[in-house]
Design goal:
Blueprint lengths: L7 E4 L1 H8 L5 H13 L3 E5 L2 H15 L4 H12 L4 E3 L3 H14 L5 H12 L2 E4 L2 H9 L5 E3 L5
Parallel strand pairs: 1-2, 1-4, 2-3, 4-5
Length: 150
Amino acid sequence: MKSSATSSVVIDANVTVFAIWPSPHTETAQMLLERLRQERKIIHVPELWRAEVTSVLHQLGASRREAQDKVRRMVQAALKTAPKRAPLDEELCLNALAWADRLGQAKAYDAFYLALAERLGAEFWTADKRLYNRARQVGAEFVRLVSEAR
């Protein structure tokens, strides 16, 4: 069943990470998430979002030699944002494969987000400019860049 495009959005793992981990993009990512909440949007992510958020925060912590407790708190904060997680069912996996092929990507991780947004008829918000540019090149008009939220 498709959700209404006016009530649902899909966010990339990097939107969550930028909202939690201090960076030049933190304010914009936080502003976007707050706006989505105020507009009563239902935020969706594919189930792999939890693994991606955890992995990226671990990588950032390791590269900056942050205390494990700090990284653990950030992972917990990210997981508490509680977007609605979509299971990685066969249909989503096959559509992700098709998106990865369209995007010319060797890995399908990003494609799961596009496949989910397409399934829901929803916008997909990302902070990944390369993904945004490539998706728009292949006709994914529903993809939005976090910097557009300003």
